[in-house]
UniProtKB/TrEMBL annotation:
Its EC number is 4.2.1.79. This is 2-methylcitrate dehydratase. Monomer. Residues 290-477 form the MmgE/PrpD C-terminal domain.
């Protein structure tokens, strides 16, 4: 890897285009290096993973609304939208930016797909919908899509390793716009000069505050990465048409670093593959076994274990207090350090409860399972014994767990912590967990069979059996797919599907 130094340049300082981060990223995207077999296999896993969680969310209101917006924009050749039968009557393919938007919302709605955490947060699987939509619209094959996806993941991971957005309350999708634009550039075989312009526009249009993940969290949480993917597609379109972008976008005196991040004295080093070096970033990422914020994954596993070993903990009458000692990120984002009263509110939205580790720990402790819908149901959140237990749980930052969270050594990097439970009879139970069971270094690392099982479990209540088998057979042949076959890399609710039909979208402007 090359380490690219990054700082702010005053307007009078020379900074040739070829030394800017956007250009360096564009060069990585344009490098025709082969995709390694291990990376290809993981891309297949994540395509299956995305389809699983998108399928489970097809009837949820944000997804229904986004799908309706896409359906108002039919296009030939166009791209497919999750749930819509591409072989049916009427409009079956849609403008790629809108298809990517609808599919991005479906993938993100349940907070249940892959993650990478370093200097910042990310869900790198959010790169897949925009890259796939453009591949379908432009008639690219499976091998081209795989190359584009490898770039999208690589750039996302490299930016997340180097640049903290959340420290300045900037939403993490500001890394997604550039990575998706780069991935599309690879897919289409664009010149670095064109990709460079697209990256600048994609970054400029996708910087927003983190209020979408604060307080009473709204449905926009699912829309934010989908919007970034849509903006990336539009940025590529404009760049192909010869339009230019703010430059230098990261390093400029009035650019992203100077005013939104660490300011004029900032210094970063961004790791990027050298020319001819394989793009392996996806292998640093990990998926979710549970539908919850990634920093809650390990806590669900530990709570399930403790509830089984000590069933008395499920009764709040036996518990005096539960203290979760964890990393800075976990404490301040999904813990009591966020100072969000909504994180203890039984009437809070699903999106808010998803970002409340006290709630998640209480329910997993009592139930011994975690379900993407049932564990968030209003009647579940409002159960009196759960509320009583939940309100006895607080978090605190532990310096060692913060250090391990930020460690660059994969063997010690951790997303868990220590729990200290004080019982009313005077006993004390202490336990800890470093990573989720499904993590590559966890008790049960996810492999292909687990991705397939996750897809089947989430898809069986929604899709016909034949549709489930058709999709899996296609996905597992991903790098061999022709352009025509890649157009079928979607899921459809058709006659015979358990849910019957998709709900109609509410009427909007379109």
């Amino acid at each position: 890897m090359n380490m690219h130094p990054l700082r702010v340049y005053r307007s009078e300082e020379p900074l040739p285009r070829e030394q800017q981060l956007a250009w360096k990223v564009a060069e990585v995207a344009a490098d025709p290096v082969a995709v390694e077999p291990e990376v290809v296999d993981m891309i297949i896993n994540r395509v299956i993973d995305n389809a699983a969680v998108a399928t489970a969310s097809l009837g949820r209101a944000p997804v229904v609304a986004a799908r309706g917006q896409a359906e108002a924009n039919p296009k030939t050749p166009g791209a497919t939208v999750f749930g819509v039968d591409p072989s049916g009557t009427g409009a079956t393919r849609f403008s790629p930016e809108w298809a990517a938007f609808a599919n991005g919302v479906a993938v993100r709605e349940l907070d249940f797909h892959d993650t990478f955490l370093a200097a910042d947060y990310s869900h790198p699987g959010d790169n897949i919908p925009p890259i796939l939509a453009v591949a379908q619209h432009t008639g690219r094959d499976g091998a081209a899509f795989v190359r584009g996806a490898a770039t999208g993941y690589e750039i996302q991971v490299d930016l997340v390793k180097a640049i903290s957005l959340h420290k300045h309350k900037i939403d993490h999708v500001a890394h997604l716009g550039p990575s998706a634009a780069a991935g599309i550039g690879t897919l289409l075989g664009l010149d670095p000069a064109v990709i460079y312009q697209a990256i600048g526009q994609a970054l400029h249009t996708t910087t927003a505050t983190r209020q979408s993940r604060k307080g009473e969290i709204s449905t926009w949480k699912a829309y934010a990465p989908a919007f970034a993917g849509k903006m990336a597609i539009e940025a590529v379109d404009r760049a192909i048409r010869g339009q230019s972008s703010p430059s230098p976008i990261w390093e400029g005196e009035d650019g992203v670093i100077g005013w939104l991040l660490d300011g004029p004295d900032a210094r970063y080093e961004v790791p990027l593959p050298a020319a001819g070096e394989a793009k392996r970033g996806i292998l640093d990422t990990y998926t979710k076994e549970h539908s919850a914020e990634y920093q809650a994954q390990a806590w669900i596993d530990l709570a399930r274990k403790l509830g089984t070993e000590h069933p008395e903990l499920r009764d709040p009458a036996n518990v005096a207090s539960i203290l979760i000692a964890t990393s800075h990120h976990t404490h301040y984002v999904i813990g009591s350090g966020a100072n969000d009263p909504q994180k203890y509110d039984p009437t809070a939205s699903r999106e808010t409860l998803d970002h409340s580790v006290p709630y998640i720990f209480a329910v997993a402790l009592q139930d011994g399972i975690w379900h993407h819908a049932d564990s968030y149901a209003p009647e579940r959140a409002g159960r009196p014994d759960t509320v009583a237990l939940w309100h006895k749980i607080t978090t605190t930052e532990d310096a060692e767990w913060t250090r391990r969270y930020h460690s660059i050594d994969p063997a010690e990097k951790a997303f868990g912590g220590r729990v200290e439970i004080e019982l009313t009879d005077g006993r004390r139970i202490v336990d800890e967990i470093a990573v989720a069971d499904a993590h590559p270094l966890g008790a049960r690392p996810f492999a292909r069979a687990d991705y397939v099982r996750k897809f089947r479990e989430l898809a069986e209540p929604v899709l016909a059996g034949a549709e489930i088998e058709r999709f899996l057979a296609l996905a597992e042949r991903l790098p061999e797919l022709t352009a025509a076959e890649l157009g079928g890399l979607t899921v459809s609710v058709t006659e015979g599907s358990p849910i019957g039909a998709l709900p109609d979208s509410p009427k909007g402007l379109f």
